Amino acid sequence: MDNLRRLVAYEEQRLSSLTTRGSALAGFAGLATAVISTSDVATMPLASRILLAIAVIGLVIAAAGVVLGILIAREGTIQSTRQVALYTDVQAQSVPPERINVQIVDILIKRLDGLRKQNAARALWLKISALSLVGSVVLAAIAALIRLFA
Fold first, then answer.
1. Burial of 150 (0-12, 13-18, 19+ CB in 10 A)
2. Cβ atoms of 81 and 38 closer than 8 Å
3. How far apart are CA 97 and CA 6, in angstroms?
4. 100: buried, middle or exposed (CB in 10 Å: 19+, 13-18, 0-12)?
5. What does the alpha-carbon distance between residue 141 and residue 32 come to, in Å, rounded to a whole number?
6. Mean pLDDT, rounded, for 62-84
7. d(CA 6, CA 150)
8. Where in the chain are the domains?
9. The whole model's pTM is what?
10. What is the C-alpha separation between 52 and 49, in angstroms, rounded?
11. What letter does residue 79 receive in the DSSP assignment?
12. Average pLDDT for 21-28
């Protein structure tokens, strides 16, 4: 049971870490979009404008991926208040500790399974968003180089 509790705690920390990294990535994508959008595109060569437009689309995809894949609340598995209330019930107090431990282990296994699935999906969305962000930054840098040498 202690191992299960540690594994659940690890997955909960991973969930928090993924959410924090996703929030930072979305913030950077939003800031980069704002910087690109406020640049003077009228004086840029056509190739730079096209690359910047693609970069902005990539940044929007990165931010949307974070919001849709990481920050949206998902269904969780927790011990219900009904189960907690059983501990004050006189009939439930006569339940042997082994049975209570089995119930707790069942709840922890279900919670761990749910957290692992959610974290795997969130990690995938974070990778996709990060790749989109990197691609957008590269495109913006190429657009800047084209403008510099035009």
1. exposed
2. no
3. 21
4. middle
5. 12
6. 74
7. 58
8. 2-76+119-149
9. 0.78
10. 5
11. -
12. 92
